[in-house]
Amino acid sequence: MPETAHTVDPRRWKALIFIALAQLMVVLDATIVNIALPSAQADLGITDANRQWVITAYALAFGGLLLFGGRVADLWGRKRTFIIGLIGFAAASALGGAAANQGMLLGARALQGVFGALLAPAALSLLAVTFTEARERAKAFGIFGAIAGGGGAVGLILGGVLTEYMNWRWTFFVNIPFAVVAATGAVLVIREPAEGRNPSRLDIPGVILATLGLVSLVYGFTRAESDGWLAGPTLGLFAAAAVLLLTFVLVEAKVKAPLLPLRVVAERNRGGVYASLGLAVIGMFGLFLFLTYYLQIVKGYTPVVTGLAFLPMIVGMITGSTQIGARLMTRVRPRLLMAPGFVVAATGMLVLTRIDLDTSYPALILPAFLLLGLGMGTAFMPAMSLATHGVQPRDAGVASAMVNTSQQVGGAIGTALLNTIAASATTAYATSHATGAPSRQLLKLESMVHGYTTAIWWAVGILALAAAIAFVFVNTGHQGGGSPVASSGEGAGTGADAEGADAEVQVPVMVH
């Protein structure tokens, strides 16, 4: 491949600050509501049956529209899409903070998901096309990976502080200053590559099929919790999801300008990253929900103390991402970081299967959180970089959207799936131990803890599977060297990339 001169944007590191700030807002919003949820539920009279929809409404809109958002970023331009997403997300957050009833809150959460689906892929694709030199890319994605991995835990801490000392509504209002600062910085600092857009027409059938398919899939897991796995509506939604997504793949293989070019996911390394990340997030998001309720209801922690209890996990994630992943990414194969990282996280999850009513935080929960954070941070960092490494500029938005899709759909599935497993185990335990229980309250707490530990065992297995997929499918070499990322065929390790000979493109010139 011929070498092409390229100009590096001198303000790229300032741009990273605002891109990372926007990503932090999106990721922490996925969990900040968890701690505020009990207070919001009581204030607005939300039933236990509908409580989960505060989380799921966001995830459905976000996960269902991410591919569309990524394609829009390629079509409209990433900077413009980034700014529109920020403004819309801030407006939806203001609506959520002012919610007067359950319907208004759920609508605001869905609207947050819509604009988040524009914002998240635009942020990651801006990062991917801004940092092309290997060592700089490692540093930039180390920071971004730490935020993506630790943002959820930051949300738990911030949610606790705001809920206890102010009001649950501030878990929404806090997004507004984040968005204002990030949008202002984007206007002043961020510069988009001159030749990075994809001018092809929007694939409307692909948008409809992908959105309906993903929403059906996530909603199917949600209905499984309330109706059961073999109920007609549950099976109908899963069947609809399978038909819609299979049709989507067939359509994408034939249309001239597909929403998701199959070359993006057909490359084994990116496919392995998407699958392993999705599985890892299934385990992690369910864990956040369980441990939030465990620490507050079983252990009696305040919202602030609950949030601070997650702080070691954040420290571990930042350490794993910036000090292990970023430093070794240019010297070690990604699978030798991702697979061990997921195994370390699974070990931390395994420790948490031993929680009971009297579990000591310093003796058991603290080391488990450190292992979880360290493992996930180490795995997330190379995964985030590899998912967009070598992608053509015209596909950067949709490749970034696939990363976020795997995470958001995984989060929604994890919340619904593990919640279903925990609820079933809780009910079974309460029924079998009802006669010999010393008190109804004690039985309730013991049943809850049994349900949590049962679900955590499943999470251990899911993380182990993520490690196996990363080790088997991710076979590329390390992302070192001094040359910029120039095409979708680079970084694929062995063999030619699925994008073929047309993958050779010039390194985009930064516009000053």
TrEMBL record:
It is found in: Cell membrane. The chain crosses the membrane at residues 15-37, 52-70, 82-100, 106-129, 141-162, 168-190, 202-222, 228-251, 272-295, 301-324, 336-355, 361-384, 449-474. Residues 15-479 form the Major facilitator superfamily (MFS) profile domain. GO terms for molecular function: transmembrane transporter activity. It is a multi-pass membrane protein. Keywords: Antibiotic resistance, Cell membrane, Membrane, Transmembrane, Transmembrane helix, Transport. One of its GO terms (cellular component) is plasma membrane. Its main location: membrane. GO terms for biological process: response to antibiotic. InterPro entries: EmrB-like, MFS, MFS_dom, MFS_trans_sf, Sugar_transporter_CS. Pfam families: MFS_1. Gene3D superfamilies: MFS general substrate transporter like domains, Multidrug resistance protein D. NCBIfam families: efflux_EmrB. This is Puromycin resistance protein pur8. It comes from Streptomyces chattanoogensis.
